[in-house]
């Protein structure tokens, strides 16, 4: 299969590792901000191949993990309403809220349905005109266009019973907030999927204002190793910049059509990130002209803010302050079958990756 064997060649991997070892002298810390990269690094043992002066950290790259519990609680509150059908992607259904999850509510009789496309949610709304169909939208620049498509289609079809509960976020403000918050990192392994939509230009400010390296990476072992080599080269030369390793999918401007779709439906707002806190202009909410589809405005959704479960370090892990093995719950009470925090429940969560691949 193309881009599988070619990007897992042992000889090429050895060459890249040897070159990293040869040129790397400075102690550096690089953070990946994509759950796909976290899983790949652990799965292929890339972190174990590097010299001791290079440390890899996992950041807020998993959309399920950074979504605040209050959002989950709102989705659960909606699911308890007899007139509501919740349509959701599978990665959200087991995320624990304060006292329950969508999966638990489904087991108790709530109408919660896993979908694979936002257009599938629209179809459910059309087939159930007597019900109110809510789609909890989470994710970064990658998944937001599909939510925008659903809203635009709902308007064209004049659907009166379709609603969006938005927790969509954009990545650069959070990356900036981490640096401003004192994160001790020299560079980012840039998220490939996000950058396919948004382009590499969204990271220019990071490099200019904070002297941070950003290399946008693909997801195969050779992609990540080459990206690490590029990051090391920038640091050794003392010239941090934004570069693209994943050139087969990413360019400077990104997918302009997808960006236009999002801009036509959403506008930025302040929003909370697990582990980081409130980040200005990092969230996306529906524009006023689409307010009829905004579940926040159409339903009573007041929930209490509740702290993270006692002992859970998800917040610190997402901001690079701790690693999963620092958490007393990790691998003992908190396991994939009984996740305490979102970092363990998500298939791309840092704790899930560390647990599955033995750190």
Please name the defining characteristics of this protein.
Rossmann fold, five-stranded parallel beta sheet, 40% helix
How would you characterize the overall build of this protein?
The chain is of the alpha/beta class and 359 residues long. It has a domain at 64-170 and 264-298: 3-Layer(aba) Sandwich (Rossmann fold), CATH 3.40.50.11740. Helix content is 40%, strand content 17%. It contains 17 helices and eleven strands. The strands form three sheets. A five-stranded parallel beta sheet has the order 2-1-7-8-9. It has a four-stranded parallel beta sheet with strand order 4-3-5-6, with helices on both faces. It has a two-stranded antiparallel ribbon with strand order 10-11. Strand 10 (266-273) and strand 11 form a beta hairpin. The longest helix is centred in the middle third of the chain and has 17 residues, at 221-237. The chain is globular.
């Amino acid at each position: 299969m193309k881009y599988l064997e070619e990007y897992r060649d042992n000889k090429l991997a050895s060459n890249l590792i040897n070159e990293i070892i040869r040129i790397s002298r400075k102690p550096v810390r690089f953070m990946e901000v994509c759950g796909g990269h976290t899983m790949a690094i652990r799965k292929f043992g890339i972190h174990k191949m590097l010299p001791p002066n290079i440390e890899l950290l996992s950041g807020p790259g998993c959309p399920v993990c950074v979504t605040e519990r209050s959002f989950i609680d709102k989705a659960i509150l909606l699911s308890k309403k007899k007139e509501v059908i919740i349509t959701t992607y599978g990665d959200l259904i087991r995320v624990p809220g304060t006292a329950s999850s969508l999966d638990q509510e489904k087991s108790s009789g709530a109408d919660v349905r896993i979908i694979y496309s936002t257009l599938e949610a629209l179809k459910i709304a059309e087939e159930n005109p007597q019900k109110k169909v809510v789609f909890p939208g989470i994710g970064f620049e990658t998944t937001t266009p599909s939510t925008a498509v659903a809203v635009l289609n709902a308007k064209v079809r004049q659907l009166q019973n379709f609603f969006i509960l938005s927790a969509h976020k954009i990545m650069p403000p959070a990356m900036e907030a981490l640096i401003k918050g004192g994160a001790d990192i020299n560079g980012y392994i840039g998220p490939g999927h996000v950058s396919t939509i948004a382009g590499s230009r969204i990271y220019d400010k990071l490099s200019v204002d904070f002297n941070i390296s950003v290399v946008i990476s693909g997801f195969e072992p050779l992609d990540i190793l080459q990206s690490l080599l590029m990051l090391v080269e920038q640091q050794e030369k003392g010239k941090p910049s934004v570069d693209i390793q994943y050139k087969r999918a990413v360019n400077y401007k990104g997918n302009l059509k997808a960006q236009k779709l999002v801009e036509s439906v959403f506008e930025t707002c302040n929003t909370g990130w697990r582990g980081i806190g409130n980040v200005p202009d990092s969230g996306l909410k529906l524009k006023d002209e689409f307010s009829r589809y905004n579940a926040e405005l159409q339903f009573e959704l007041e929930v209490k803010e509740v702290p993270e479960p006692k002992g859970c370090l998800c917040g610190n892990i997402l901001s690079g302050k701790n690693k999963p093995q620092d958490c007393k719950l990790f691998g003992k009470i908190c396991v994939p079958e009984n996740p305490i925090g979102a970092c363990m429940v998500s298939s791309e969560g840092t704790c899930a990756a560390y647990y599955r691949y033995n750190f």
